[in-house]
Design goal:
The structure is a single chain. Helix 7 links the parallel strand 9 and strand 10. The strands form 2 sheets. The protein has an 8-stranded mixed β-sheet with strand order 1-2-4-3-5-6-9-10, with helices on both faces. It has a two-stranded antiparallel ribbon with strand order 7-8. It contains 9 helices and 10 strands. It is globular and about 55 Å long. The two termini are 17 Å apart. It folds into 2 domains: 211 residues, Rossmann fold; 69 residues, no CATH class. The protein is of the alpha/beta class.
Length: 295
Amino acid sequence: MSAAATDDRAPRERVLELPHLRLAARVWGRAGERPTLALHGWLDNAASFDGLAPRVPGLELVALDLPGHGRSDHRPGGVYHFIDYVADAIAACDALGWERFSIIGHSLGAGVGALVAGAVPDRVERLVLLEGLGPMTNLEEDAPAVLRHAVEQARARARKTAGRERPRPLASVRDAVRARLMAGEMQVASATTLVERALREDDDGLRWRSDPRLRLASRVRLTEGQTLAFLRAIRCPTLLVRAHDGLRFDEQLARQRVESLASLELVRLPGGHHVHLDDPEPVAAAVRSFLTNNP
C-alpha cells in the first residue's frame, strides 16, 4: 500500500461519553484494525495527527481532544492535573470497547501515554512517543515551592478576572494563527491546522475553545523516581522519535529514562517540536517500520 494519504483514511468526528465528561475525537481507519489511541500536546488538539494518521495504514486511530482542549468538555472545576489525563485516556479506551490498544503520544501526550503504559501494562501493545519521554518532574524538596507558586498564581488569576467581561474576540483566523506561532515554533500550515479546530464562532466573533485554566501551573508533580518506576513497568515495545531542533531534554535524565525501558527504539529526525505535523512522512515511515517489526 502506498505510504501517501488516501481517501479511505479521511478522518471522522466522534464523541465519547465518559462518566465525568465528554471527549471529542477524530477517527481514522476502520473498526477491527489495530486499535490505537493518539494523544496530543499541551494546548494542541486532535488535529495534531492530521498529517501522520493517514500515512500509517492498518490502524483504527482515535485522536482525542484531551479535556479542556479542542472540542472536548472543560473540567467542571478546580485545576488540571497531569495525572488525571491518564485516567481520561484509560476511560476513553473503555468507552471504545478496547481491552488492548497501542498509543501514539506527542509531547504532553507522550508523557500521558508513558504513564498509561506503565499503569496498565497488560493493556498496551505498542507505544510511540513523539518528542517526549514521560512527564515533567520535580525534586522532592521543591514540592512546597511548586505548590506555593501554583496556589499564588491561581489566586492572582481569580483576582484579575473577578468581575471582568470576557476577553475581546479574535479579529480573524490569521490573528489566531499568529498568536499560536508566538507560543511555539512550527510551520504556518501546521499552526493553521491546529487553530481551525481550536476556535469557535460566537455572536461577537472568534474565540478560543480551550480552557484558560490549562495555563495554570501544576500544583504537584511526580518525582523523577516515581516516573522511572512507571517506565520500568512498561512491557511493550516502545519507539521514541526525537527532533534535532525539538524539545530540549536534560540528557542525564533522558539517559536514565531510556535505560529504564525494557524495549526501546530511538529515531532522530530533522525538524522541530511539531515535526509530526510539519513534516509527517519521515515520522510516519519510522512508525510504519516500528509497527512492521513489532506485529
